[in-house]
């Protein structure tokens, strides 16, 4: 299953889920290993979705993931209310042994990273006993530490030496998913999967619920009874979220539909937009996965290396499949250094995107002038810059400081930073986040490393002009006290 046959995701509570069965997921993984193209797979349950509503970085990880599996029965049960029904619940705990069985047949190697000392090694040995042909590339349990305090270099060196086909990361969510996101673009591992407690279950360190409880969707109750102090508050928070989010979605769905006042795109407007590298088209209702896939492919060909403006003035509602199509188009545009611009949204549709926490990911405008301004801002500030004056280095951060964009920013600013730190001219560093829209753990790690270098050289460093959403990312990562 390649990119063209990966199903268009269904967006539930703002999180994309790919509509696959266990067999289809395993086939997808095998084909991705054969392709050699690095892939990031997330197994997302209700707790994942709950956290994602409050964590901009986690939301982006799920949107950017190559495959998101519905690891929670609430997502499957509720999916028909959002659009097409999810076929099945695909749990990481069940996927891991099934994947090991298939890997043994295909001659593909597996590496276990995380869990407590000895657990991954024991679990992989058990899997090898079940499937003698399974190739174990290795295992490693790093000492427990927050994500940004881990020894990433040692882990990456071990993985580079082992060269696994499939990496199973068991740091727990969302730490494991943020770790994968930080490195998936740079390492030479075909498939990486966050698997939570799967290795604990295989090794016997934790006991899974009996099959009849799993079939009755009561595995959560078993886990609460086994670990009440650790899980009770989590499941209470998940239930509160589920009830609150469901009420909000029901309320939005029943909102009256009103047309929006907007500028019709005449020939003059279209020519103006084209001068600023913006091509235009109209969104259409998508009734089937096939139609959604065809629309995505057509828009990808349409945009090329330009920004794409989609007119939605005639669209009264977006179901889960249509939202998934928009996410896929925007993901493609971002990969080309461009953006998908949503134009003339009706109030009901805009409220839907706001509630699903997707307005930070999409560019939404009501006028041609706003669309032009977006394109100009992207062209001017996409890469950031470094300016030195009177003892101060001003780092103007790019629009996004993430694992994807960080190498470009580092390449353009690193030589000046090193020169100034070495020759003693540098007195202070001002990090200006005025144009910054998004930062992830890779970006935060860069800022922490820069501050340490500055501090070691007796140079002060400050971070300015953070938006509330960006500040929240700093707080979730617990680096606000260090950097702010």
Write the topology of this structure.
Blueprint: E1 10-12, E2 15-17, H1 22-35, E3 39-44, H2 46-52, H3 56-64, E4 67-70, H4 73-78, H5 92-106, E5 109-114, H6 119-130, E6 135-140, H7 152-162, E7 166-170, H8 175-183, E8 191-194, H9 198-203, H10 211-215, H11 219-226, H12 228-253, H13 267-275, E9 278-282, H14 289-303, E10 307-311, H15 320-335, E11 340-343, H16 347-355, E12 363-365, H17 368-381, E13 385-389, E14 392-396, E15 400-401, H18 406-423, E16 428-432, E17 438-439, H19 441-456, E18 460-464, H20 468-476, H21 480-483
Parallel strand pairs: 3-4, 3-8, 5-6, 5-7, 7-8, 9-10, 10-11, 11-12, 14-16, 15-17, 16-18
Antiparallel strand pairs: 1-2, 13-14
Helix pairs in contact: 2-3, 11-12, 12-16, 14-15
Measured on Cα atoms, how large is the radius of gyration? Answer: 23 Å
Proportion of residues in extended strands: 15-25%
Mean pLDDT value: 94
- The side-by-side strand order for the widest beta sheet comes to 4-3-8-7-5-6
What is the CATH class name of the largest domain?
Answer: Alpha Beta
Helix fraction by DSSP (H/I, runs of at least 4): 40-55%
Largest sheet: 6 strands, parallel
CATH A-level architecture of the largest domain: 3-Layer(aba) Sandwich
Number of helical stretches of at least 4 residues: 21
The poorly predicted ranges are none
- Class by helix and strand content? alpha/beta
Overall outline: globular
Q: How many structural domains are formed by the residues? A: 3
The end-to-end distance, rounded to whole angstroms, is 45 Å
